[in-house]
Specification:
It is a single chain. By secondary structure, this protein is mainly alpha-helical. Helix content is about 70%, strand content about 0%. α1 runs antiparallel to α2. The longest helix has 24 residues. The two termini are about 25 Å apart. The model has no long low-confidence stretch (mean pLDDT about 95).
């Protein structure tokens, strides 16, 4: 397998995790603000859990996320 953009698979995975965490954080901020009426407590906490889980996964792989 040859990577075109990333130097290695670790760099690619870190990028993917960082991007997804950033997306979830934006959604979480919206859920706390302008879109608060569209999220119930379960959905709001699920966003927090997803962010935390992805950070745990990244750290377990030795990535700084």
């Amino acid at each position: 397998m040859t990577l075109n953009h990333f130097a290695n698979t670790e760099e690619a995975l870190k990028f993917a995790l960082d991007e997804k965490i950033a997306d979830l954080r934006k959604e979480h901020a919206a859920a706390m603000g302008s879109l608060a009426d569209q999220y119930n407590d379960e959905e709001f906490h699920a966003l927090e859990d997803k962010i935390d889980d992805l950070k745990v996964v990244g750290r377990s792989m030795g990535l700084k996320v």
